[in-house]
């Protein structure tokens, strides 16, 4: 039995970089020095506790009370143990010096950062030990897989997902139930299920956090999906830059096999499933589904024309279901609570919740999961706390290099697929970068265009050459040597690259430029040199 007093230490990569491992060692030493053992006080490594900018994060649980602390040093471990053991949870039983030492590090769990969130995908993050299948099972993981296999047909599972209104969280927002039906209804033969965990957007760390924090939940979601579409083999495609996520995912797969939750005759049924990890070499274009599939097959990851779509002809020519980490991880909760429960959250066309990686010029950086339709202003100013120095927000960039920059006057826009597209941006996988008043928008556009230049696979000329030319034009604006004709060239070239590129990388690469031209055109105009005749007559002053 776990002890009634528990200290949960964030062991995700972000907190590790802030010193969480040294802090946990110090906490174990302080517990031993106090003459306690794990039966009296459990010190448990967990995944992301969400307010990442305050790491290392530690939560202290006792009956009727949970406290969260951030930024503690190993030297404060003794004070934290004393606080965790405070008799009856009463403040007065803790020495004043101890209480004072911890006061500045305490994070308000009733504050807007946590109170306005609705954890569905993240409900196990920070609660379970990501390296313990026993802890995951105790939390309820794999219960829905067992129920599905023993009580529901594949058609009933797909119906529940359709009713939920879940749309793909990888960026395009394609209806998940419709995609599952497309795969399931293909002619008899092999099928595959693939998780796209190739999270390459600058400022995005949602998938990494889930993989590091709750890998068994992802495995359960993939297994349910495989049963629903008739697949018996699957792959998780993870970028090599996520070593801790890869390590924990591989461990979780090994543990699931040892418990017969993967393999043959799962839960005594005829359902069989093999899942494997494939590590990508870091090519951003492999986040595009056709390039990803080629990479899994051991070929160079380059986008292919569609149709046929992967749901019809994917891995080795077989129907293949591709969803991302967040989509698969939402599935167990949908099956547990029902599709109608999930559909009750969000908006008419964007159901459920969405996880964002909130970063940039904002007080509270970290993971945020809110119902679809939540205004951007609520996310960045209320949950995020606004710009640290109190100055106004200038813009919010969503969707990574494929998205756009939304100006402060549009922050009351609800977060959903259609509303963001109308503003010239997109949901993307969920990166959300806040920009302060000193940010130069042409520089932002150049930064993202440089990323697209470096990550283009080079297969099609519009992307290979067009992004380079766009980057060169943006150099002229940033260096204030552009002329008014460059404005027209920039807009025309953006439209050409957007319309004629082969895959989503090239098609969306102009978005940061087009959105900043739309909302911050005056900054581009200010960077243009005035004609010589205007300067001579004083009109250019």
UniProtKB/TrEMBL annotation:
The keyword 4Fe-4S applies. SMART domains: NADH_4Fe-4S (SM00928). Residues 442-487 form the NADH-ubiquinone oxidoreductase 51kDa subunit iron-sulphur binding domain. InterPro entries: NADH-UbQ_OxRdtase_51kDa_CS, Nuo51_FMN-bd, Nuo51_FMN-bd_sf, Nuop51_4Fe4S-bd, Nuop51_4Fe4S-bd_sf, Thioredoxin-like_sf. Keywords: 4Fe-4S, Iron, Iron-sulfur, Metal-binding. Belongs to the complex I 51 kDa subunit family. This is NADH-ubiquinone oxidoreductase-F iron-sulfur binding region domain-containing protein. The lineage of its organism: Bacteria, Bacillati, Cyanobacteriota, Cyanophyceae, Synechococcales.
């Amino acid at each position: 039995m776990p002890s009634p007093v528990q200290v949960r230490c964030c062991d995700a990569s972000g907190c590790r970089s802030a010193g969480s491992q040294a802090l946990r060692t110090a906490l174990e030493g302080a517990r031993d020095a106090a003459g306690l053992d794990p039966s009296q006080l459990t010190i448990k490594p967990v995944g992301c506790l969400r307010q990442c900018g305050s790491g290392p994060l530690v939560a202290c649980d006792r009956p009727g009370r949970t406290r969260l602390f951030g930024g503690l040093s190993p030297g404060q471990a003794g004070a934290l143990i004393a606080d965790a053991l405070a008799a009856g949870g009463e403040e007065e039983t803790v020495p004043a010096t101890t209480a004072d030492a911890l006061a500045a590090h305490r994070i308000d769990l009733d504050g807007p950062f946590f109170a306005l969130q609705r954890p569905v995908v993240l409900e196990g993050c920070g609660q379970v030990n990501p390296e313990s299948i026993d802890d995951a099972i105790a939390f309820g993981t794999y219960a829905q897989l067992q129920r599905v296999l023993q009580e529901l047909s594949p058609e009933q599972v797909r119906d529940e997902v359709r009713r939920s209104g879940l749309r793909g969280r990888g960026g395009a927002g394609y209806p998940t139930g419709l995609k599952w039906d497309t795969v399931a209804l293909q002619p008899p033969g092999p099928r595959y299920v693939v998780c796209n965990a190739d999270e390459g957007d600058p400022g995005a760390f949602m998938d990494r956090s889930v993989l590091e924090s709750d890998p068994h939940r992802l495995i359960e979601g993939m297994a349910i999906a495989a049963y629903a579409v008739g697949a018996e083999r699957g792959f998780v495609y993870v970028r090599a830059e996520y070593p801790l996520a890869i390590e924990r995912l591989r461990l979780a797969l090994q543990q699931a096999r040892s418990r017969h939750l993967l393999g043959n005759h799962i839960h005594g049924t005829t359902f069989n499933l093999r899942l494997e990890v494939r590590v990508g070499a870091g090519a951003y274009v492999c986040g595009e589904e056709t390039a990803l599939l080629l990479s899994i097959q051991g070929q160079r990851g380059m986008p292919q024309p569609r149709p046929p779509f992967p749901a019809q002809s994917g891995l080795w020519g077989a129907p293949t279901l591709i969803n991302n980490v967040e989509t698969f991880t939402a599935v167990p909760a949908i099956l547990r609570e029902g599709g109608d429960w999930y559909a009750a959250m969000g908006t008419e066309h964007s159901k459920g919740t969405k996880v964002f990686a909130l970063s940039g010029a904002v007080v509270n950086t970290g993971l945020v999961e809110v119902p679809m339709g939540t205004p951007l202003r609520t996310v960045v100013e209320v949950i995020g706390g606004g710009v640290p120095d109190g100055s106004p927000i200038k813009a919010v960039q969503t969707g990574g290099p494929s998205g756009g920059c939304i100006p402060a006057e549009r922050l009351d826009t609800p977060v959903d697929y259609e509303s963001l597209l109308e503003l010239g941006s997109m949901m993307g996988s969920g990166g959300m970068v806040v920009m302060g008043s000193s940010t130069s928008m042409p520089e932002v556009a150049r930064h993202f265009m440089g990323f697209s230049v470096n990550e283009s696979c080079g297969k099609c000329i519009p992307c290979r050459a067009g992004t380079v030319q766009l980057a060169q034009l943006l150099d002229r604006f940033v260096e204030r040597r552009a002329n008014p004709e460059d404005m027209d060239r920039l807009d025309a070239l953006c439209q050409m690259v957007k319309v004629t590129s082969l895959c989503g990388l090239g098609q969306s690469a102009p978005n940061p430029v087009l959105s900043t031209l739309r909302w911050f055109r005056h900054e581009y105009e200010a960077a243009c040199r005035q004609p010589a005749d205007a300067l001579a007559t004083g009109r250019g002053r």
